[in-house]
Amino acid sequence: MMRLFHEEEDLATAWDDTSFGIRIKNDESNTGSKVLGEILEAFQRSDGMIYIGPMGPTASSGLVVAIRSRLPEMVLEQMKAGDESRLNLIDAVAQVESETNLVAKLKAAGREYHGLMPAWAEKYRPHVQAESKYPVLFHLNPQNQQQNNSGWFTVEQLLAWAEGNGPVIKAKAA
Question: What one-character-per-residue DSSP string does the chain give?
């Protein structure tokens, strides 16, 4: 598991595709151990929950470990709405992929990237000046950033990049 916290943090979580961990710093009254014990007990009585919640400017996700019975109903409703939106986004991206073969075209063109993260277009529309027929945008973190821009792009702009055109490619200095 990758270590994603610093020694001075009071609470940290980290995970990868095979495991996750929680680290809570103890104080004089062993608060960290007590909190972890309460979380463990909650999971043993089926009251614990793990949720991937939105965080940060690129809408990346963070691991939330919580005791369900202690959360206000409004928070649970927001979590449910977030889950539904995420599932609908997965479906929308699958539809884009079935219509365009975007990932395969990028790969065939040798367009490599560190990350290509989808989001609903309405949320990030101000970051993209171009119109799109698709309801999703993608945040691109390309390799070879001396020649390629990172940022939010439409499906059409990413397809243009696969063809060697469009705003992903940096303009050459005059």
Answer: ------TT-SEEEEE-SS-EEEEE---TT-HHHHHHHHHHHHHHTT-EEEEEEEETTTTEEEEEEEEGGGS-HHHHHHHHHHHHHHHHHHHHHHHHHHHH-HHHHHHHTT--EEEEEEEEHHHHGGG--S--SSSEEEEEEES-TTTB--EEE-HHHHHHHHTT-STTBPPPP-
